[in-house]
């Protein structure tokens, strides 16, 4: 079947073509319909496609280039940055809410299926337990849940900016208010504790700590105090805080001053921010991540120019790999500081993506495609840090030094070993196939739409045509539930990037069509069957991976704590285990079935302390 299809039909049929749209001159991509949501291929391609769309069809009205905004760290300078975004929505609540009554878990839902058809969460592999001290929790990210976008001295971030550009967020929602976790965190932490899970992985907003981002700019004490209380609240409720320094929300000022992560200047600014945060919360946080999913972030860096410009020497084609280089140096510098400052605890970054399987078994080109996918998706950051101190050979063979700056011996020494554990946001595992024109032809043609990774993700079995698993919401067409491949994936992560322990740092599912339901349909929203099945099947496989395969997994984090701003899908793609009623003045949260299932699963599989 494969060989009979034309290139374009094949690309249309196959999932996950890694378009590097920025490789293509604007004039050749002017078929706007191909840029609209139906042509999306993955979460990062979504963002790329849509931001590309604004760049060429809805150019921002401000005409500022990188370097054109002066470094004015006064209140007037801050206002000028906010003017780039325009008016933002004011939240309905403007102070921290202290819950008046303790949160208790409502009565659980009835069994989903008759017992002859499916077991309840408590009956899934009941003899297998998580290791002692296992972190079992929920995950969130500052931009996606906090809201209060302009409050208490915060500066704007690139995502605050992007969310206000027409066409970026499909449903035109912004994250200006969203869940208002910034003021409602006490209730949110109490609700996590009520579920009986024991941790929360969240991120700090760099622009709340340094509104102007830069190392010579003033720190915002309100931001420092805020997260101090957020962390203290977690500890008070026995919910372990796991902290990410950077979840894609670059202070807009740094993009304006020098082009953000496309510039070497970012390295020292990030390290300074990291040191400030380490110092402020040392002793209260044990597990730290420098960066969330750097590969996904850098794949999009070329489409977050400051208006239409990037720093000198960088263009939208090579920006991704310049970003990779500076980000890796920023990570290594932050970890070096962490160790030199004797910060207590452990630190690494969060990888994403998967090690796939050859679509056509024993086909050497597809076997190579698997390697290319793993190298471009995970190895790009994980090889230098965990194994070789250098970029994967596949990247060096494909990308000339003007695309991918080479790591010097000194760089390698600084980078290798800068992780205490391996963390992976592993949502799914698919097959990989070679491009229809062959890998060599693709690698030698930088205008091939699949270049430079030159592999195709396939979400259905070559032999049978059956999907790898049930589909999620149409807005997240990159995601199918694939529990049956979890164990083999974890074996591959551990074999390729060995570390003393692994955190399963994010996994989750967008229940189809949840985003189109109204608050009156709450009883249907809370019945999130596909999400519940996703979590229960993944967690069963995870237990087998730990107990049968010996994988040293010491934590698992469900994405997400509640519905939130899902990047360019806005409020329309829902990942929450709690529903948020965006029409209610208190932004009321309601547990969905999946929250109860996670709670039950953890209670049943928790290792009880053994009395001596
Ligand atoms: C992850 C990302 C999260 C969230 C999630 C669901 O890749 O870290 O911020 O968006 O995907 O799409």
TrEMBL record:
InterPro entries found in the cross-reference section: GH, GH_1_N_CS, Glyco_hydro_1
Region forming the signal peptide: 1-22
PROSITE patterns xref list: GLYCOSYL_HYDROL_F1_2
Entry keywords, A to Z: Hydrolase, Signal
Domain of life per record: Eukaryota
GO annotation terms (biological process): carbohydrate metabolic process
PANTHER family linked: BETA-1,4-GLUCOSIDASE (EUROFUNG), GLYCOSYL HYDROLASE
Name of the molecule in the record: Glycoside hydrolase family 1 protein
Organism: Lentinula edodes
